[in-house]
Design a protein that fits this description.
This protein is an alpha/beta fold. The protein is 41% helix and 18% strand. Helix 1 packs across helix 5.
């Protein structure tokens, strides 16, 4: 992938281990910017109102530490400048139907249970890249 075509991936994830795994998985296609909580992500948006226009893909954990979970983040992003068409992938350890429904109602693009193997992460990279390719131009 041409360096000019690299993706800008936003990641709201409280697990260092998951962050490092995703950073490694996406290293050939993009750069991962991480916020370790919903609160940190919202502060970044307040400090940089155009932040969402600089991100090609947003990945969220549902079960974030703090008082703001991934569903709240997704719902808020959908109403923010640059967030309406932003591909949002929820990456979580939960396969519970109620969590999936809540996330879909919040406007996420895709729901993924966190892969346990690196090869599954590579499949996630391919699927996520395809989501970005289908995004309308800003």
């Amino acid at each position: 992938m041409d360096p000019v075509d690299r993706l800008s991936i936003g990641l709201v994830e409280d697990s260092d281990e998951d962050y490092y795994a995703l950073q490694r998985a996406f290293r050939d296609v993009g750069d991962v910017r991480r916020w370790s909580s919903g609160e940190a992500f919202f502060k970044a948006i307040l400090d940089h109102p155009d932040l969402l226009t600089t991100v090609d893909l947003l990945m969220l954990d549902l079960g974030l530490s703090g008082s703001i979970d991934g569903v709240h983040v997704a719902h808020t992003v959908r109403g923010a400048r640059g967030g309406a068409d932003l591909p949002i992938v929820v990456l979580t350890g939960s396969a519970e139907e109620s969590d999936i429904e809540r996330a879909l109602e919040a406007g996420i693009t895709e729901y993924e249970v966190k892969p346990q193997r690196f090869t599954d992460l590579r499949i996630l990279v391919e699927r996520s890249t395809a989501l970005v390719a289908g995004r309308p131009a800003a």
